[in-house]
């Protein structure tokens, strides 16, 4: 992982996004242990609080869980979150079809919504 210290995205967000993608793409399986906050901060040249914030946000999203001395690991909730997104997408697809939107129009709406994040 490389941190762009001169970019517009804060370093904690770069760390959060990196791990969120790795978890959602299953590059990091359930139970995989993340580096300690201090070790990752040192490796990336970041403040400990910066990495701690990224980990805290990953935990709030249900992607990781902290197990005290056992460290921070990828949570099984990541799979549950993926299923919730699939269900929401199916519901959206059904509703857009009922309302007469073309698939292209429905995707444009989703792209516009995602561009806000």
From TrEMBL:
Gene Ontology molecular function, alphabetical = DNA binding; DNA-binding transcription factor activity
Which keywords does UniProt give here? DNA-binding, Transcription, Transcription regulation
Q: Where is the HTH gntR-type domain?
A: 9-77
Highest taxon above the source species: Bacteria
| UniProt-recorded name of the protein | GntR family transcriptional regulator
Any keyword Manganese?
no
Identify the species of origin: Lentzea aerocolonigenes (Lechevalieria aerocolonigenes)
Task: Answer yes or no on keyword RNA-binding.
Answer: no
Which SUPFAM superfamilies does its entry note?
A: Winged helix' DNA-binding domain
Could you list the residue ranges forming a coiled coil in this record? none
């Amino acid at each position: 992982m490389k941190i762009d210290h001169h970019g517009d995205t804060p370093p904690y967000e770069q760390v959060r996004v990196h791990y969120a993608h790795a978890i959602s793409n299953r590059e990091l399986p359930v139970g995989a242990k993340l580096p300690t906050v201090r070790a990752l901060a040192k490796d990336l040249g970041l403040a400990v609080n910066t990495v701690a914030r990224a980990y805290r946000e990953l935990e709030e999203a249900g992607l990781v869980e902290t197990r005290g001395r056992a460290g921070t690991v990828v949570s099984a909730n990541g799979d549950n979150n993926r299923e919730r997104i699939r269900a929401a997408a199916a519901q959206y697809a059904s509703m857009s079809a009922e309302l007469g939107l073309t698939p292209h129009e429905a995707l444009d709406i989703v792209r516009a919504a995602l561009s806000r994040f």
